[in-house]
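Please review this pair:
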Amino acid sequence: MSTMAACIPHEDEVQCCNDLHALLCALEADSSLFLPTRLRERLVALDDVDAGFGGFDSEDSAGCTDSRVHQRAKALRIRLEAANMELYQSVRSDIVRGDQPRALLPWLGGSASGSEPGSPLPGLGFDYRDELVSGVLQLPEPDETDRQTSAEMVPYQPTPVRHILDLIAAVAEEDVFVDLGSGLGHVPILVSMMTGAQSLGVEVQAAYVASAQKCAESLRLSRVQFIAQDARDADLSRGTIFYLYSPFKGSILADVLSALRRESMSRPIKICSLGPCTRRVSNERWLKASALSDAGRIRVFESL
């Protein structure tokens, strides 16, 4: 049986290689892509390269087996990631020197689409700002965490940064911000950094608390604290603004809301919520929504 047919590149493979070659040529020719201000464009370029080349193995590369094209893609990816890391380290250095919130503000402004100023888009997806904050804060998720002790505890999921920016509008420097179910801690860290307010993260997973506290200390953020504790047992007496991104449900959520109601008897408080718990919070008669909010965005409630 002849094997010549196996040696002739398939037409689809040739077209795929041509398309990927054209993509690389366009990216390599754009020297401005490596400027610090082109972060969003670099992230898009990295997504395009990853989509075209997968894990950079021939079997993952959408049909292109040209090793030279693969080597160029690897080299370009390294350069793009190095440019991003240089930016992240520069912003970290500015934060450590105490230049906040100005260190982050220029990079976090604008909408996810880049065309709509003002309020964030609804929904819980992520955008370039989450990549930026992840690179700056360097908050790796612990390898080992405690098992969920209750079916009513919800697995950790980070709040998209664009919603944290929405949340920050409700926080003043004199507030004490408390994140109930703070996970890796990026919400209290950003809130304190951007507003100057004292922030407390309450998280039942001790490994998450250790990672969050280490990050705050590495950035020399003295007004952020984390405690490893069940939210039902935490001392809430200093808090003025409490944040819930659906960290628990059922009886746990009911118990926490009851504790917050008791706190509201001694002082005005606000509750900011995101996700499924918002419907439950909105049913509390001792709270009123401070303004109408679109579904899928932060909602702020004030105690009566």
In short: Confidence is low (pLDDT under 50) at residues 1-8, 110-118. Residues 10-96 form one domain. The beta strands are 176-180, 198-203, 224-228, 241-244, 270-273, 287-289, 299-303. DSSP finds eleven helices and seven strands in the chain.
